């Protein structure tokens, strides 16, 4: 994505909460900072709702909380994503999981990435899959989009609907949690399955119905990305997609 000369702040704070914490969270938005990356985990949902609403009202973009941040290799890095995993390339990546962000970046390091965004896996996040899909769709440096989700909630289903209606670039996906037991939180606060809602299978089905190719492991997902890029480079019908 295009470089932005605006102010950026990254926050990794201890888990104290209350009025003092809320004032600190509001301070970057009040100072006119354009992008705030919140790495901190364990933030109560009430606090996340409050500072995200305040940021939206002041025009500040929040990434997180409980996220690794974002990187445009060779240009900018805000957060804790190691800068040497990969280099610049045509893949845009949006992920709930920091670890899976790093793994996909490593598996596809020979191809490279335009921008990688770790949005975090908490129930309330400042930036969604859809926000990143919209940005990657408009980004001239991104040719293919990878979306990484996980069990719980309906963010992936909503992202699938957005891809179907608004995204023209190829999209490859992965949903973590195919073997997760029902009713148990797995990793992130938002990663919990209740009945048939929020399962990896249901999310995979929604994404595939929107035309997204979905892997069941990170390695398979990386292979699907390579296959999709190869198809774009040498199309069977002579039309590049």
Structure notes:
This protein is an alpha/beta fold. It contains 7 helices and 10 strands. It has a 7-stranded mixed beta sheet with strand order 5-4-7-6-8-9-10, sandwiched between helices. Helix 4 runs parallel beside helix 5. The radius of gyration is 18 Å and the shape is globular. Residues 1-5 and 188-195 have low confidence and may be disordered.
Number of strands: 10
Q: In order across it, which strands form the biggest sheet?
A: 5-4-7-6-8-9-10
Overall body shape: globular
First-last Cα distance: 20 Å
Q: Strand pairing plus helix content: what structural class?
A: alpha/beta
Portion in beta strands: 15-25%
Mean residue pLDDT: 85
Order of helices and strands: EHEHEEEEHEHEHEHEH
What Rg is obtained from the alpha carbons, in whole angstroms?
18 Å
Give the % helix: 25-40%
Q: Tally the helices.
A: 7
Please write out the topology.
Elements: E1 8-11, H1 19-30, E2 35-38, H2 45-58, E3 61-63, E4 69-72, E5 76-79, E6 88-95, H3 98-107, E7 113-118, H4 129-138, E8 144-150, H5 155-166, E9 171-176, H6 200-209, E10 213-215, H7 218-233
Parallel strand pairs: 1-2, 2-3, 6-7, 6-8, 8-9, 9-10
Antiparallel strand pairs: 4-5, 4-7
Helix pairs in contact: 1-2, 3-7, 4-5, 5-6
Question: How do you describe this structure in short?
Answer:
This protein is α/β, with parallel strands linked by helices and 241 residues long.
Note the main attributes of this structure.
single chain; 241 residues; alpha/beta; seven-stranded mixed sheet; three-stranded parallel sheet; 7 helices; 35% helix; 20% strand
């Amino acid at each position: 994505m295009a470089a932005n000369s605006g102010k950026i702040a990254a926050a990794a704070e201890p888990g104290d909460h209350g009025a003092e914490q809320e004032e600190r969270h509001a301070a970057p938005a009040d100072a006119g900072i354009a992008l705030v990356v919140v790495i901190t985990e364990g933030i109560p949902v009430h606090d996340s709702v409050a500072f995200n609403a305040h940021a939206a009202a002041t025009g500040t973009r929040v990434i997180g909380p409980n996220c690794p941040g974002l990187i445009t290799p060779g240009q900018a890095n805000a957060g804790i994503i190691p800068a040497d995993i990969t280099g610049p390339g045509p893949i845009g990546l949006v992920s709930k999981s920091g670890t899976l962000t790093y793994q996909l970046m490593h598996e596809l390091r020979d191809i490279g990435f335009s921008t990688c965004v770790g949005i975090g896996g908490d129930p309330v996040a400042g930036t969604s899959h859809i926000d990143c899909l919209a940005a990657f769709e408009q980004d001239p440096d991104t040719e293919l989009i990878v979306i990484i989700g996980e069990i719980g909630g309906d963010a992936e289903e909503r992202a699938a609907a957005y891809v179907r209606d608004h995204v023209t670039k190829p999209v490859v996906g992965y949903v973590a949690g195919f073997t997760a037991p029902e009713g148990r939180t797995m990793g992130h606060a938002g990663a919990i399955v209740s009945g048939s809602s929020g399962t990896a299978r249901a999310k995979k089905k929604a994404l595939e119905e929107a035309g997204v190719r979905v892997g069941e492991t990170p390695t398979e997902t990386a292979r699907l990305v390579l296959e999709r890029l190869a198809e774009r480079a040498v199309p069977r019908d002579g039309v590049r997609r």
